[in-house]
# Entry
Amino acid sequence: MVYCRKGNINPDCRIDLDLSTISPLNDGADMSVSPLELTSGYGSAPTAADAGTATSEPSVAGRQTGDAPRILLATTGHLPSTARLAMELHAAGARVSLISPRGHPGRVLTIFDRRMVYRAIAPLRSLEAAVSRVSPDLVIPCDERTVRDLHRLHRETADHDVRLLIQRSLGPADSFPVAASRAEFLDVARRQGVRLPPSMALPSADALDEWMARNAAPFVLKADGTWSGFGVRIITEAAAAKPAYAEMTRRASGRLALREMLLENNNFAIRSWLSAERPAMSVQGHIDGWPANIGVACWRGEVLAAICAESVSTLSATGPSTIARIIDNPEMVETARRVVKALGLSGLIGLDFMIEASTGYAYLIEMNPRCTPICPVPLGPGRDLAEALVAQLMKRAPRERPAKTERDILVFFPDTWQLDPSNQLMHTGYHDVPWEQPELVRILMRPELRERYWFTRVLRQAWWRLQGQQPPGP
# Structure
């Protein structure tokens, strides 16, 4: 642990679909679902199995003001924040569906209209079939891999309505390359006049030499398409830069993909290996200070609501917060407004900053083009992102729902409970525990898969010995 500084839903309609085994043109004639569930405003016309089951419910484009909006949450990961977001969107009046891997903790929730399987072997097919079945007003991605899949689906689908949905959910198509590239994003932000550290793209090791000729260590290497700090390396000595660059640009490892499948329940890692992915790289000046972030709900280039926080405790030197302090930071909010307007963004995003210790200035360092852990926490008017987004979709004014807490310290569950239970802030902060969903709490408190069973513990020990290293703690 690193310390950085001081609706309207019918539960009988829920089904669990494996969308990789069903053609997007077949709405599941062999499945027992209600007529309402089979109505689709996207994709192909209803199949023969659906004939006579259509209802008078309007399509997405024709829904009336005040209708409960349909929101599809999509994720290839297992983050608990996806489940928390589903709960808040449901409480705000949305009908929520989920497409995720089978092991996602949120699948135990009973609030979903539908729970569908996001398959690593057929990701675009899974997504397009989910859209066809749910007919959502909005798709919210909850990890970067899903964002990339949505961008790719927009390029490759023959369905015009699917392309429109993705643009309505994320922003205009010309913003997609910017959202996927750290270097391009900072170039756009720089043109908006926001405060940034020096940075540049690194298409080759020669470009790194060019950077080091003008910039002394420390600096930060970053790989596109990564998250949770795994693709970030702080370089404190120039001699370490080239080896780090070579390691970070190495082709995805099949052995690591196998480990992810067996020990982390992550089948999506195999895609990176099979496609021989090598991430695009960038370099950024290091800011002496502490990390902060802002979660933003936005619509067509306008910020609807935002929450600013600074990290108090993190999973690693470059990792996400486990404990955060809620703050007011006008510079971060203004930066968010400029970036969102410049890119015409919609949905939920996060922006990461470094707060410079000597000045208190907020330096923008990157964008997370998806829901971040702070986004689901309702903190009152102007800081209730789920309510702001649902209100926009329903074409009504946001309701003034009470804040979950008046405390400024937020303890993210379950990370701090499991990794740092002796932290003194455990006694003073607000714990974001979904007590109203006891089954979800139980699932989130289970040990990680790698420690849950005797055979996964044995496999983990063997993995580290194969690397010639001593196994770390749990």
